[in-house]
Amino acid sequence: MILPNNNAIRHIRNERLLTIKKDYRGNKTINGRFANGDDLYIPKFSNVLRWQLSRNPQRNEKKQDNFVPAVQAGSAFIESDKDMVVWLGHCSFFIRLGGVTFLTDPIFFDLPMVPRKVSLPCPPEHLRNINFLLLSHGHRDHLDKKTIRTAFAHNPQLKALVPLRAGDLLRGIDPQLPYQEAGWYQKFDLVPGEVEVYFMPAAHWHRRGLSDINKVLWGSFVLRTPTTSIFFAGDSAIGPHFEAIEDLLGPMDVCLMPVGAYKPTFLMSKSHMNPHEAVKAYNLLHGGTFIPMHYGTYDLSDEPPGEPVRLLRQVAAGGMLQGLKIPAIGEPVLLQELQ
């Protein structure tokens, strides 16, 4: 791709927040669109058309694969005072760290034309006493209007921690929801106590409408206390940013890693990881516990629904993934037990 002249290139960040990477000027934009590092990535419509018109080579295998994640019903984890991670399906987690509670990329309902395949562990209105929403990017399976309105209605104290320029999306959902935007390598300053939250890189892209491609940033999160670091990858392709994150913030005790929606490769490889790539990223992060996400909840791609879990277990059996943990939806993973 030929880049426009330098007059169209800017670097932006939230100037009120701390930037932890030395000499980092902010996220690069080209003609107002965010880049992945130095490169402007715009998915090709021809690849989408190719996908729609081609036959999935795993079509029969996928039809015969009835895998759905197990669900541990109940909401007792909401009332607990223990630090924990609870998968709610897709990339949605309930996290309690240092007594502060978070929801990551929450989506509780069907997507347009894509039904949810597996239930939540409890009704959405039971998810109360949540302090922060962590929204990694603006794709509709990560930033869902109905879910955000539902969460805010039952958590009036809620604040959102979001990427640069995502505030306009939130104002369109509920103008009363407080939020703070950050660029890559920036530390949010709204979180109380000893809990630190950083917005970190990812290799992805943005689009919700016809003309807004890459006008909102995307990224990942690190949640950290003096004793525990949790990495939430959001959506990302494999890339050098994982090593950069570890260089700045050290080994990650818990890695919440996307492992689904990776086929066909020609369409997905620039924005998602397959299980082998997710394990490589986890090893670059010097990860402790690996918890997979972005699989089993919605049918978004060509691989059979149970394939990500099968591949992860094979990799773990081969000794390349020491800390694999595959919880049921709603099953608390107690951080104290992972130490």
Automatic annotation (TrEMBL):
SUPFAM superfamilies: Metallo-hydrolase/oxidoreductase. It comes from the Bacteria. Gene3D superfamilies: Ribonuclease Z/Hydroxyacylglutathione hydrolase-like. InterPro entries: Metallo-B-lactamas (IPR001279), RibonucZ/Hydroxyglut_hydro (IPR036866). Residues 102-295 form the Metallo-beta-lactamase domain. Pfam families: Lactamase_B_2. PANTHER family: N-ACYL-PHOSPHATIDYLETHANOLAMINE-HYDROLYZING PHOSPHOLIPASE D. This is MBL fold metallo-hydrolase. It comes from Pontibacter saemangeumensis. The lineage of its organism: Bacteria, Pseudomonadati, Bacteroidota, Cytophagia, Cytophagales.
